[in-house]
Amino acid sequence: MAEKAHVLIIEDDPALRKLLETALTKAGYRVSLAANGLDGLVQIDRAQPKPQLLIVDIMMPELDGLSLVRGLKTQQSTRNIPVMFVTAKADSKTLAEGINAGAKYYVTKPFVLEDLLAKVKRAIGG
Question: pTM above the 0.85 mark?
Answer without folding.
Answer: yes
